[in-house]
Amino acid sequence: MTSPLTTPAAPPSAVRWTPRLWGTLLVLCAAMFLDALDVSMVGVALPSIGADLGLSTSTLQWVVSGYILGYGGLLLLGGRTADLLGRRQVFLVALAVFALASLLGGLVDSGPLLIASRFIKGLSAAFTAPAGLSIITTTFPEGPLRNRALSIYTTCAATGFSMGLVLSGLLTEASWRLTMLLPAPIAVIALVAGLKLLPRSEREQNHRGYDIPGAVIGTASMLLLVFTVVQAPEVGWASARTLLSFLAVAALLTVFVLVERRSPGPLVRLGVLRSGNQIRAQLGAMTFFGSYIGFQFLATLYLQTLLGWSALQTALAFLPAGLLVALSAAKMGSIVDRFGTARLIPVGFALMVVGYALFLRVDLDPAYAAVILPSMLLIGAACALVFPSLNIQATNGVDDHEQGMVSGLLNTSVQVGGAIFLAVVTAVVTANAPEKATPQTVLDSYRPGLVMVTGIAVIGLLITLSGLRSRSRQQSVVVAKSTLQEAEADRVPVRD
């Protein structure tokens, strides 16, 4: 896999940012922005939804979990479908479905229908996310141009998430339905622009047939895995249902690997995972997002439950991290070009570990300037470095006809990592829940969860640090070969 440091410079004609190129990127960024916006907005609106529709807590959680289930369960299928049927076509159809589901979610008066609309939105996002990322990686040549495009693209996720928290706090004051309806007109505008601007992509000439068994088994295994992890905190990690579900997931994944190894046109070409850089990118994505989503969950509980902050105040507390990511977007591409992903990802993880560890100092006195703000800024800097770099590392050196597959793998790692590690953090907090709840004992029950979050980030740091050793070995081999070739060239034959 190619490093940004070793990629040959693109020709001048390839690095011109034409208006059409900017328009293409903006359409793709709009879809990414909507995905993140939709996730953060619904979380703040849940209490109002439950009160209006008369939903129990167990039913209400599926307004969030339904989206996660559709998104995380179908990403592999979405990525490969984009490769086979055409990235532009898949992206636009899925974006249209997203707009319709948003409209449905804002108009329904039934809990099951609302959950169904959320599942459909997650399903459509499972196709727009890998299709959008693969459009970027096949439109922008590998190197500085792609690095800049990916840094802007990934920044939109953080911006959408931050804006979603603030907008939800404002819109929910009027009606929770506005939080569901807001993405619809944005999606329609992006759809109309996409019809005019997105480059037409040829379908892969797949003479080996479609991997229907792999698609069915892979999708079923991901759906069951996400469903099991989401439900485990409620039904119990050691319950027969949870254990049997995990056993079924293991069986399905085993069958999936066997099918993919024998398929002439696999849903996931397993050989792509032989690359150390690819494995580090996938595991890094799992630990990065898993630790962050766990931190956000605990920090929100701390700010709202213990400190009594409003939803809007809580959103503003997280805002500095999002703003830092947004402001760094224009510079991240050149930073990656200069230092390379193998260096930036561990640095970002280290900043994240320090930010989480600093947040462990919180107490019942809200020391925002001394503890909370520095933590948010460190975490924001980590997100600015890590997330674009992971996307660049995962997609560099991959053939165009497999960009959708790799994009689907990366997004699956993000979503499954978030679901698994959030469930683990929740279980740790629940296990330490006090019998007699006082503000101090509740705060004390959060600390093991924060320690777990920090530990997950440390694991990510250790995994990504191995990339530095690998890069050093590769450079040593290159230098040794170069020295040997120069020595041979310097030899002058001696004639008798």
TrEMBL record:
<dbReference type="InterPro" id="IPR011701">
    <property type="entry name" value="MFS"/>
</dbReference>
<feature type="transmembrane region" description="Helical">
    <location>
        <begin position="210"/>
        <end position="230"/>
    </location>
</feature>
<feature type="transmembrane region" description="Helical">
    <location>
        <begin position="449"/>
        <end position="468"/>
    </location>
</feature>
<keyword id="KW-0813">Transport</keyword>
<feature type="transmembrane region" description="Helical">
    <location>
        <begin position="342"/>
        <end position="360"/>
    </location>
</feature>
<dbReference type="InterPro" id="IPR020846">
    <property type="entry name" value="MFS_dom"/>
</dbReference>
<feature type="transmembrane region" description="Helical">
    <location>
        <begin position="281"/>
        <end position="303"/>
    </location>
</feature>
<keyword id="KW-0812">Transmembrane</keyword>
<dbReference type="InterPro" id="IPR005829">
    <property type="entry name" value="Sugar_transporter_CS"/>
</dbReference>
<keyword id="KW-0046">Antibiotic resistance</keyword>
<feature type="domain" description="Major facilitator superfamily (MFS) profile">
    <location>
        <begin position="24"/>
        <end position="472"/>
    </location>
</feature>
<keyword id="KW-1003">Cell membrane</keyword>
<feature type="transmembrane region" description="Helical">
    <location>
        <begin position="90"/>
        <end position="108"/>
    </location>
</feature>
<keyword id="KW-0472">Membrane</keyword>
<feature type="transmembrane region" description="Helical">
    <location>
        <begin position="242"/>
        <end position="260"/>
    </location>
</feature>
<keyword id="KW-1133">Transmembrane helix</keyword>
<feature type="transmembrane region" description="Helical">
    <location>
        <begin position="366"/>
        <end position="387"/>
    </location>
</feature>
<dbReference type="GO" id="GO:0046677">
    <property type="term" value="P:response to antibiotic"/>
</dbReference>
<feature type="transmembrane region" description="Helical">
    <location>
        <begin position="59"/>
        <end position="78"/>
    </location>
</feature>
<dbReference type="InterPro" id="IPR036259">
    <property type="entry name" value="MFS_trans_sf"/>
</dbReference>
<protein>
    <submittedName>
        <fullName>MFS transporter</fullName>
    </submittedName>
</protein>
<dbReference type="GO" id="GO:0022857">
    <property type="term" value="F:transmembrane transporter activity"/>
</dbReference>
<feature type="transmembrane region" description="Helical">
    <location>
        <begin position="152"/>
        <end position="172"/>
    </location>
</feature>
<dbReference type="Pfam" id="PF07690">
    <property type="entry name" value="MFS_1"/>
</dbReference>
<feature type="transmembrane region" description="Helical">
    <location>
        <begin position="178"/>
        <end position="198"/>
    </location>
</feature>
<feature type="transmembrane region" description="Helical">
    <location>
        <begin position="120"/>
        <end position="140"/>
    </location>
</feature>
<dbReference type="GO" id="GO:0005886">
    <property type="term" value="C:plasma membrane"/>
</dbReference>
<feature type="transmembrane region" description="Helical">
    <location>
        <begin position="21"/>
        <end position="47"/>
    </location>
</feature>
<feature type="transmembrane region" description="Helical">
    <location>
        <begin position="309"/>
        <end position="330"/>
    </location>
</feature>
<feature type="transmembrane region" description="Helical">
    <location>
        <begin position="408"/>
        <end position="429"/>
    </location>
</feature>
